[in-house]
Amino acid sequence: MNKNELRKKYNDLRQNLSETQVEDLSIDIANQLLQLPIWNKVYYHTFLSISEKKEIDTSFLLSILQGKDKEVVISKSNFDDGSLTHFLLTENTRIKKNKWNIPEPVDGLEVPETKIDVVFVPLLAFDTNGQRLGYGKGFYDIFLSKCKPETIKIGLSFFEAEPVFEEVFETDIALNYCVTPSKTYHFKN
């Protein structure tokens, strides 16, 4: 399957999940994350879920991060240039959905990519080599290319790995891990 066919397949699979399934599977993913050797870091970047797209509910991950007293970073999208600006999530952070229903910080304390130790990456699908398939705008590939080389990249997926993707581009940034409700994949990238 090409990337467009895979996007359609996984968008459809997600849309067929009930709200209860999304919640239960998201909790399972959060529990799997606790087993990873990543909790000695300081700055953790996560996405805020687009509930209309039935993305993984990252509120459970946020609870873990806050419980472990970690610095949590979230992003604001710039659709003009495909960039993300990163802000520290604090109790004073105001979150507002943009016109694409992406919850984003209104403003706050900006955090450079080079400070971020771990990135939890949204995706539609991933393959057995750790390549991810997003919505196709390239926001995360641009962002991840600016992070330090040792930044740990962790995909979160309701579904298991696809065979190796046919289409991989030089600008695609591979994952170190991908966590599903029942399994953690570790990639040697």
What does this entry look like structurally?
- By secondary structure, the protein is an alpha/beta fold.
- The chain has one domain: NagB/RpiA/CoA transferase-like (Rossmann fold), CATH 3.40.50.10420.
- It is 24% helix and 22% strand.
- It is built from 4 helices and 11 strands.
- Strands 3-2-1-6-9-10-11 form a 7-stranded mixed β-sheet, with helices on both faces. The chain has a two-stranded antiparallel ribbon with strand order 4-5.
- A hairpin with a 4-residue loop joins strand 10 and strand 11.
- The longest helix has 15 residues.
- The two termini are 23 Å apart.
- One of its GO terms (molecular function) is metal ion binding.
Helix content: 10-25%
- Net shape: globular
Q: How many strand elements?
A: 11
Query: What would you say the CATH architecture is?
Result: 3-Layer(aba) Sandwich
Give the count of structural domains: 1
What is the SS-derived class? alpha/beta
Catalytic activity: (6S)-5-formyl-5,6,7,8-tetrahydrofolate + ATP = (6R)-5,10-methenyltetrahydrofolate + ADP + phosphate
Enzyme class: ligase
Protein name: 5-formyltetrahydrofolate cyclo-ligase
Binding site for substrate: 50, 55
